[in-house]
Amino acid sequence: MIRTQGLTKRYGRTLAVDDLTLTVTPGVVTGFLGPNGSGKSTTMRMMVGLDVPDAGSATVNGSPYAELRWPLREVGALLDAKAFHPGRTARNHLRWLAETNDIDVRRVDEVLDLVGLTSVAHRRAGKFSLGMGQRLGVASALLGDPGVLLFDEPVNGLDPEGIRWIRHLLRGLAAEGRTVLVSSHLISEMALTAQRLVVIGRGSLIAETSVEEFTASSQGDTVRVLTPTPQRFVKALSEAGARPSVGEDGAITVHAMRAADIGELAARLSVTVHELTPVRASLEDAFMALTADAVDFRSAPGGVEAHVPVPVPAR
Amino acid sequence: MTYALTLEQTRAPEPRTQAGLTQAVRAEWRKLVSLRSTVWALLITLAGTVLVSYLSAHGARHGRQPAGFYRGFDPTNTALAGLALGSLVIGIFGVLSMTGEYGSGTIRSSLAAVPRRRVFFAAKVIVLGTCALVVGMVMSFVSFYVGQAVLSGGAPTATLSDPGVLRVLLESGAFLALLALFGVGLGAMIRHSAGAIATFVGCTLLLPLLLHEVPGNVVRFSPESIFANSVADVVPTNGAVSSTEGFILMAGYTVLALAVGGVLLVRRDA
Fold it and tell me: Cβ of B185: how many Cβ atoms within 10 Å?
């Protein structure tokens, strides 16, 4: 169980984490979602005591991290793909880590095997690929067999096989009753891995929900309409309370009106309709919609993202 | 009530122990010996130090010396000439033990594993200090014996039982350990290898050159002057501080550097 209470962190004049209160429960994978620079890493760093909050607190199993008796046996964290010395072998890196918390040396070989690094255990970690470094980070996190696990962007640098592996690993760890918090800016990845979602933007909480609820609650559902007389129908749709927009291909994208109602309206006005397609919002659309106000590094207008019709949710 | 009591009784006993200094020291030791580069650097430095000492003694023994060269000659100090090189490298060794953590990102693993930062820093100081003390003593004694072997037969020599010689050798070895710890303190303060090494070299090599021009013989208080003219001399050079004063002064610099570095390490985000 991880709790944060009014967690706040400031870097100079930038508010990196803003009064964040959240609970991460055991037994499920919790996805920690947010655009780049939204404060995910900073929040996780405060959870393990690397950064000191300016206000508020973070506790693991009820204690601040620094007060845990055997930190590595309670919490495992992968916060950085390169938190090891390049000159040390993978096995030696794990061995000194094990020493800090009186972890049996047999466990070192166990986790090396678990992450598939046994054959390169005696190679210096500096020669590792990003993916192998990531696996060594996972091994470090699992070393103390902890009940709470934090993973910051664990799929970075992994190949498709590695991504599948980590997905199964995370779900398996959660199924064993552990608390698993995984940050990502890749929504599609979270849709496959996580059961619960914590979404933040600009350091503050936007949503704390399940994956299903998150997609369902989004107002991103749209209807695509093709008609030979778009101008006339757009006017009628607007008057009826919908929010239509005409795309470059001449198709109308309608927000805030169901497909059935659009059909009724067209019939009443005798508008010829060639196509009427409900488009379900993806998790990605829902995410974009929620964080539209909270993106620090937005693409310039005209960029790829600017073409995606982003409805602003009424909040 | 009864129920609560039962629960209390059946709960598994809390382990009384917790991760502490013992574990942290063991981990720091393993960190140190598991880096091939550190082990090699120390061995090469040891060899280099002894070589310079050998050359110094060789020059004193076989060089064409002016008349009266050996009047006031200090065979012990002559044999310890290599320690000037050793002092530089052992200090950098201390610096790198901290800045290497920051440069490689290991510090995040270290502080996640040992979140009580005082404990982490204390373990670092204990392991580095002990290691530097052993290496320093070896440098000092091996240089001495090699030097005397070279000098014997044509120049005055010293033995361990001569007055002041054992004091010089022990203090010189310990002085090297202090320099390493001074480096640890600078490393914790500055965190970047290049900056911290430059600062260390500035304090040891550059400072005497600058202070030389300052009136009042202030230069005698700089670490390298203390080492060369007070600690490593059987008879302190004219105008230098006494060896005891010098040693205490260097210990003071070291404690100061460690205190500032330690406080910054505890306070700053990693």
Answer: 28
pLDDT of residue B235: 79
Residues of chain A with Cβ-Cβ distance to B19 below 8 Å are 69-72, 100-102
**Structure ipTM:** 0.87
**What six digits make up the tokens of A127?**
């020669």
Contact list, A84 vs chain B (CB under 8 Å): 104-106, 109
Chain A, nearest residue to B99 by Cα: A85
The residue written with tokens 């059987």 in the block is B234
Q: What is the pTM of this model?
A: 0.84
Q: Is A67 exposed, middle or buried (0-12, 13-18, 19+ CB in 10 A)?
A: middle
Q: Which residues contact B78 (CB under 8 A, 6 or more apart)?
A: B56, B57, B60, B147, B151
- Ordered alpha helix ranges (H), chain B: 2-10, 21-33, 36-62, 75-79, 83-104, 106-113, 117-151, 165-190, 193-201, 207-211, 223-225, 243-267
What digits encode the pLDDT tens for the residues B17-37? 899 999 999 999 999 999 988
Say how far apart CA A166 and CA A194 lie, in whole Å: 12
DSSP A124: B
Q: How confident is the model at residue B217 (pLDDT cuts 50, 70, 90)?
A: confident
Is A152 strand, coil or helix?
strand
